[in-house]
User: Which sequence fits this backbone?
């Protein structure tokens, strides 16, 4: 791992063809898509990601933070759960989806996949983007 350059170098052995590097942003996107595939989950973004989405570009890495440590990869997922779902079960599904997606797409294993439930979305509530558009 090249912690000072924030690039993760892949260890593929010596095949003489060069090296493969993966930026942490790629891992964020993979984890974001894997998390949003779980039923009952809404991903949390910040103001900047909301502005980017209004301009027509989908931000798949929103609500995900990836940290490259000396011991490995730590993924933090910040999400909002729909009212009525089992939070422990859905959180476990998110962890499994993220771990499996990273393994399938990058051959990397995350040391930790931490789920942070930052809110509950009721059926009568509208997503933040719709509320802002109506104002």
Assistant:
């Amino acid at each position: 791992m090249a912690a000072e350059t924030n690039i993760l170098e892949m260890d593929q052995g010596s095949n003489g063809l060069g090296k493969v590097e993966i930026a942490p942003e790629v891992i964020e996107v993979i984890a974001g898509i894997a998390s949003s595939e779980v039923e009952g989950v809404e991903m949390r973004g910040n103001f900047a990601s909301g502005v980017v989405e209004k301009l027509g570009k989908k931000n798949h890495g929103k609500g995900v933070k990836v940290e490259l440590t000396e011991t490995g990869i730590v993924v933090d997922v910040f999400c909002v759960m729909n009212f009525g779902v089992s939070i422990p079960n859905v959180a476990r599904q998110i962890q499994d989806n993220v771990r499996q997606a990273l393994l399938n797409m990058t051959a990397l294993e995350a040391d930790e996949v931490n789920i942070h439930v930052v809110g509950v979305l009721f059926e009568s509530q509208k997503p933040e983007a719709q509320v802002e558009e109506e104002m």
